[in-house]
């Protein structure tokens, strides 16, 4: 896939652990880890909204498109 | 939304769970009583009723297992539940003919041993009751295939954060 997830970079910037973020966005650690490592096929707007609110960022900060 | 849906499903299944356990216990008890009546020589019908009781007990056990699996996995769409539904379909289809067939065989063997004229009557195969149970099994089989599709949808849904 050409969409790269930059969630780990944003979490490091905000000094937030996976467990802490998972608890704040009401997701399981497993699902959030899968999202971070690009194993998920998609993301709901509801989830994206919650992550952006907690990490105080824009959706564009979390994703990057790279030509194949 | 998914959590609320699962919570509601588990709550709705509570009553079915306890009813199934109650009916399973009575089914097992009656099956044993019918078997004892048959062994005591109180009519061959008791063997048929015993067989239906065993089939009911198996179906109810699988249903209880399915409800427990739904609570454990937080979804009704798993391969394990689909396989149990297929097993229920198989048991129901078999129970449409096996109890009457077994009774006819026992009567046949009894008559042969007593040197009486004996033949197996296959009229039960096309009886309304047999056809109804057969169709019930087919419908459950179709539902299990729909659940197989549901498993695929569940996997797809779980791959979206």
3D architecture notes:
The complex is a heterodimer of chains A (68) and B (161). Chain A has helices at residues 7-13, 18-25, 29-36, 45-55, 59-62, and strands spanning 3-5, 63-65. Chain A is mainly alpha-helical and 68 residues long. Chain A has a single domain (3-60), classed as Orthogonal Bundle (434 Repressor (Amino-terminal Domain)). Chain A is globular and about 35 Å long. In chain A, 13% of the residues are buried. The model of chain A has no long low-confidence stretch (mean pLDDT 93). By secondary structure, chain B is an all-alpha fold. Chain B has one domain. Chain B has five helices and no strands. In chain B, helix 1 (2-39) packs antiparallel against helix 2 and helix 2 (45-73) packs antiparallel against helix 4.
Task: Draw up the topology in text.
The complex is a heterodimer of chains A (about 70) and B (about 160).
Chain A: E1 3-5, H1 7-13, H2 18-25, H3 29-36, H4 45-55, H5 59-62, E2 63-65
Antiparallel strand pairs in A: 1-2
Chain B: H1 2-39, H2 45-73, H3 79-94, H4 98-113, H5 128-158
Brief overview, please?
The complex is a heterodimer of chains A (about 70) and B (about 160). Chain A has about 70 residues and is mainly α.
> Which range best describes the helical content of chain B: under 10%, 10-25%, 25-40%, 40-55%, 55-70% or over 70%?
over 70%
Number of domains of chain A: 1
Structural class of chain A, by secondary structure, is mainly alpha
Q: Looking at the structure, what is the overall shape of chain A?
A: globular
- End-to-end separation of chain B in angstroms reads 13 Å
- What sequence of helices (H) and strands (E) makes up the elements of chain A? EHHHHHE
Features:
heterodimer, A: 68 residues, two-stranded antiparallel ribbon, B: 161 residues
């Amino acid at each position: 896939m050409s969409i790269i997830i930059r969630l780990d970079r944003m979490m490091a910037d905000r000094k937030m652990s996976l467990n802490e973020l998972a608890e704040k966005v009401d997701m399981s650690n497993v699902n959030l880890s899968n999202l971070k490592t690009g194993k998920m096929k998609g993301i709901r707007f509801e989830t994206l909204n919650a992550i952006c609110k907690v990490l105080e960022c824009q959706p564009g900060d979390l994703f990057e498109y790279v030509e194949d | 939304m998914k959590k609320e849906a699962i919570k509601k499903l588990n709550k709705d299944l509570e009553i079915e769970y306890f009813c199934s356990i109650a009916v399973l216990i009575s089914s097992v008890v009656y099956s044993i009583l019918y078997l004892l009546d048959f062994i005591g020589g109180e009519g061959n019908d008791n063997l048929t009723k015993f067989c239906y009781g065993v089939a009911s007990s198996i179906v109810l056990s699988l249903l209880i297992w399915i409800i427990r699996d739904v609570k454990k996995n937080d979804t009704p769409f798993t391969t394990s539940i689909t396989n149990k539904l297929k097993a229920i379909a198989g048991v129901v289809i078999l129970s449409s003919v096996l109890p009457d067939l077994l009774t006819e065989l026992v009567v046949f063997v009894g008559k042969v041993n007593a040197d009486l004229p004996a033949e197996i009557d296959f009229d039960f195969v096309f009886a309304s009751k047999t056809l109804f149970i057969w169709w019930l099994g087919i419908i459950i089989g179709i539902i299990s295939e729909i659940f197989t599709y549901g498993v695929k949808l569940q996997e797809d849904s779980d791959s979206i954060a």
